[in-house]
Amino acid sequence: MAMDYVLKPFDDDRLRAAIARAHQRISGDRRAFLLQQLRALVEAKQQKWPDRLVVVREGDRLEFVQVDAVDWIESANNYVVLPGGPKQHILAETLTNLDKTLNPDKSLRIHRCPIVNVSRIAGARPFLSGTYQLELHNGTRLGTGRQYHDAVRRLIRK
Fold first, then answer.
1. Per-residue pLDDT tens digits for 53-108
2. What is the rounded CA–CA span in Å between residue 151 and residue 149?
3. Using CA atoms, how far apart are residues 113 and 116, in angstroms rounded to an integer?
4. Per-residue pLDDT tens for 26-50?
5. For residues 126 and 60, what is the distance between their CA atoms, to the nearest angstrom?
6. How many CB atoms lie within 10 A of CB 116?
7. Residue 30 backbone phi and psi in degrees, to 5
8. The domain spanning residue 87 has which CATH number?
9. Who contacts 74 (Cβ-Cβ below 8 Å, separation ≥6)?
10. What is the Cα–Cα distance from 15 to 143, expressed in whole angstroms?
């Protein structure tokens, strides 16, 4: 893409003017590119978190599971299990991928296998190893892992 033409014979002023226009155009393009990247980052930060989890197939029927209704989520290899209530739902999703889609203010990975709904935590019991046992409102007790110690402590201090 041509920005200017410098024809022979030319003087220093004409060359400087052409270089200045090229520099201005290049820096303007760079600013536009950076602005576009900044907008993409802002939009990604304003991501809406899902209200419900992916559709769960129950035979020939599709069910929706509300995120707020889930007490905790467990890993089962390349699937996740939503325990609790009269039914246990299984989703064809890895725990790591699901963890990325959930609102971090409402869910917390506490160990390799479980993610817990923070609104369902009734209490916590610390252990000498730096881990905790979290008790949910329904009486379920879940152990935390040392790797998730800092995140659990931040939750407790809120």
1. 766 677 787 778 888 888 999 998 889 998 866 677 888 889 998 998 899 889 99
2. 6
3. 10
4. 777 777 777 787 777 777 666 678 8
5. 45
6. 24
7. -65, -45
8. 2.40.50.1020
9. 80, 81, 83, 95, 113, 114
10. 71
- Read off the amino acid at residue 141: R
C-beta of residue 121 within 8 angstroms of C-beta of residue 128 = no
Closest by CA to 112, choosing from 71, 155, 76, is: 76
Based on the fold, state whether residues 43 and 90 are members of the same structural domain: no
Per DSSP, what are the bridge partners of residue 75?
A: 80
β-sheet with 121-126: strand ranges across: 121-126, 132-136, 141-143
Domain boundary, last residue among 15, 31, 47: 47
C-alpha dihedral over 45, 51, 57, 58, to 10 degrees? 160
